[in-house]
Structure formats: C-alpha cells, structure tokens
Amino acid sequence: MNKSLKTCMTSLLAAGLLLAGCAEHYDGDETWSPQVKNATLTSPDASKITVTSSADGSTMTIAWPVVYGAGGYSVALYNVNDPSSPVLVKTDTIDGCSFRVNREEDTNYSLNIRTLGNQKYNNREAQELTEYKFNTFLPTYAEIPDGSDLKAWFAENPIPADSTSHLCYDLVPGGNYTVSGKIDFYGHQVTLRSSSKANYANIVMEAGSYFSTYAGFTLKYLNINAEATNKPLISFSDEPDESIQNLIGEKGCYFIMDPVVVQGCNISNLGTSIVGNSSAKYDVRVVSINNTVVQLDKTLPAANNAAVIYMKAGFITDFTIKNSTVYSREHTEAFFIQHGGRPKDVSDEEQRYVSILNCTLANIAYGKNVCDYHNGQTTYHYTLKNTIIVDCGKPNFLTGLNKGQSSDNPVWDVNNNTCWRDGSDASASQTGIKNPGLWLTTDPEIDPANDKFTPAAAQQEAGQGDPRWNKE
User: Fold this and answer.
1) Are the C-beta atoms of 185 and 215 separated by less than 8 Å?
2) pLDDT digits (tens, 9 = 90+) for 31-54
3) For 167-210, how does the pLDDT look when each residue is reduced to its tens digit (9 = 90+)?
C-alpha cells in the first residue's frame, strides 16, 4: 500500500475522522480492511463522492471514500454541456482521495473514476469505473413552460412575499417566450435563464415590456428580441423600498447590493438601455455584462433619449463588460454610459470602476464623449484592455470615458487596444493620461453594418476583441 493511502487509512481507524477527502469510516467490513489482498477492487461509491467549491467559486475539490488495498485512482473529468461532444477538463492518476480543479459556473460535469490495483498486495484494478454526474448551476426554483407569456405566468405564479432566497427560474432550452408588459420583481433576487448553456431560450419583448426590480437580477443564456419595447430592458424601480435606503452613508441613496448580471445573452434590436432608471437615486453596486452580444437599433437616442447604460439620478459603483460585443449597424449618438449621480453622493471615500475587457464596440456615441457623468475624480478607476473600438465616441475615445477630460486624477489601466475611426487609425488621438498603453495601428477589418466581427490577424494574434469571433 502506498504511503498516502496508508496514512489516510490509519487516521480513519485511529480517530474515526474524515480526513484528506476520505469520507468513509472503517466499519469492520473486510471490503474496506487494510488487510485486503489478492482481490479485485471496486471503484468508489458514487453516492459518497462530494464536490465542494472554494469560497470565491473559482475552484472545486472532488473527494471520494478510500478503497482499501488500492494503488491509487484513475480520474477523468469532462465538461458535458454538449453531451454529444464532451470536453476533457482533467485526466490524472491520483495518489489520494481527492483533487482540486478550476470550477466553471453553470456547467454540467461528468467524472469517471476507477480504482487502480496494488501490485504489492496482488490487488487488481476495478473492472468497472464509477461515473458521477454533477453541475454548477444555481438550483432551480421553478420551470416556466415553453410558449408562456412571462408576465402572465408570474401573475399566476407570484413570488412568495416572504421569500428571501435567490430564486432561479428555468426556461426550456430552445423554447419561445413573450413578455407582454412590465414584470415587477420588487425586492426579490431573481435569475431567468435557459436551463442549457448550449441551447438558449428565446424571448420576444412586446410593446411596453421590461423587467423591473430594486434587487439583484440576472439574465442568462437567452436570445432576446427587444425591438418593440421602449423601456430599459432591466429597469430599476422608481419606487424602491425604504429598507434599501442609506445602507451606506446617510445621503438618501437606495442601494442594490447583489449583482445585476447579463451573461451569455444575444440581445437584438435594442432601442433603449440594457439597464437603467428614471428618477430614484440608486447606487447599484455591481453591474456585469459578460459573453453577450447587444445589437443596438439606430433609433436608440431619438426614440428614448437613453444611453446603453443609463442611470438618470444614480450611478453604478462597479461596471464591468467583458468578452462581449455591443454595436449598431449604423452610427448612433447614444452615450455608452450616462450617470446623473456620483460616488460623492454616498461618501467622499466611495470608489467607482468602469472596466472594458476583451470587447468589440462599434457605432456607439459617434461624435460625442462616449460617457457622460461627473469626471476627473480621484476615486474613479478606468480599465480598458484587449478591446476593438470602431466609430465610438469622439476621436479620443480614451478620455471620452472620463467625459472628455484629460486628467491623471482617475486611476487608469489601459493596454492592447485598437481604435479605428472613419476608416483610419485613431491611436494617435488616445492622449490625456500618463500611460495610454499599446494601441495597434492596423485596420481591425470588422464590418458592423453586416454583423461581421472576425478581426484581422494582427488583432487576433494580440488577443483583442470579443473572443467568440476569433473562432471563425
């Protein structure tokens, strides 16, 4: 028996404790006896395999009960979001009872584990492997039938008034849904998602429809046609509950502490904001747009006088967009981000963050500063990396993030971008900060008018733009 297994076994026998990921205590059955010899071993019991995520959710530890007399374990972990094409995550021989691996959110996994023989004791490897399936999806609260009008469905199936849980509603993969009007989730934290990361559900927003909330809210793995609506897709309520007022400071702000997330979505014909509000003074702590494509309608500013991200009275503390594409087929004049509030409205120490990472942006705020809010603050942080920018903002897109002000007051982290305007390189215009980083000066060759975003070789080699297009 190898040293690590013997140590695990001895500890179990001596103390009856669960150590080193070995979850099974010794109960006298000779199958588990340290004296197992000349035997054909069995693979670990699937019902006793455990998966534990780290505190930040970035890794997970997979553990199983010890099989006494074993010489180790052969493991293979697969991502099976597409069951017809499993993707190998890890394969290894483990001398112990557990291993740690990176954890992907909203992923279906399959673990194959086989007990290996031990030559010293003439024990033979298990004839059959154990298969263990698990996933990292938020548990489902309810499934909404294909073909439903979501407004009518929630009217018939209201969220319990006393619910304090994060409620996840699954839509049928590939299913078709409508939203016929305002759906108000009030202070409930809600996720709407397709239950398959590989097969999005489809939602058509009808006239006057939108999602209203004064809590965290998530849209995931959805195709959303927003052509008919004239309200921010996710709209923060004009009448938030007093329970979320002055959670930080005493200046009257309403705080949404849980994140607002748009992940893995395709939003088309959007003639209004992705997120926004009209009057209440909010501090939305986190807004994240990830792995999403947003096609803006050219009438965006004329129809609704809205920015892509629009907070009339309040602001977003930490806004991040990454691995995403936001574009119009023609020039629009809408701001990318517009805020009426500022961190000082909470306290002089409040920090504010805008991060744009591995994105493709085209035809946004053409002819104006790309963002409109209080500028030049020492508490502001801007990150712009690995992004392709075409016909967005004035020629100096960079300082346009700071409402056009050249200032070293904000904290800047800028590098490896392309800025193309009116068919020419605009990198020389990216001035006004101490270190504007590297800018490629070659044509990225994207064509937003025809929904073509595969970049030129130079941008691909530099790792710029929304990474989904580099696969073409």
Assistant:
1) yes
2) 445 578 999 999 999 999 999 999
3) 999 999 999 999 999 999 999 999 999 998 889 999 999 999 99
Q: What are the angstrom distances between the C-alpha of 334 and each of 262, 271, 338, 361?
A: 20, 10, 9, 13
Asked whether the beta carbons of 218 and 274 are under 8 A apart, the reply is no
Q: Are 100 and 75 in contact (CB under 8 A)?
A: no
d(Cα 102, Cα 85) in Å, to the nearest integer? 20
Tokens of 154: 């929630």
Q: Is the dihedral of CA 343, 346, 349, 353 positive or negative?
A: negative
Residue 354 in this model has a pLDDT that exceeds 90: yes
H-state helical runs in 202-247: none
State the Cα–Cα distance between residues 82 and 355, nearest whole angstrom.
31
Q: Sign (positive/negative) of CA torsion 454, 460, 464, 470?
A: positive
% of the chain with per-residue pLDDT over 70: 90
133: CB partners within 8 A, 6+ apart: 80, 108, 109, 110, 111
Kindly report the number of other CB atoms within 10 A of residue 267's CB atom: 23
Q: Is the pLDDT at 29 greater than 70, yes or no?
A: no
Taking CA atoms, 56 is separated from 82, 92, 105, 344, 381, in Å, by 26, 25, 11, 29, 23
Neighbours of 136 (CB within 10 A): 15
pLDDT in tens, 82-106: 889 999 999 999 999 999 999 999 9
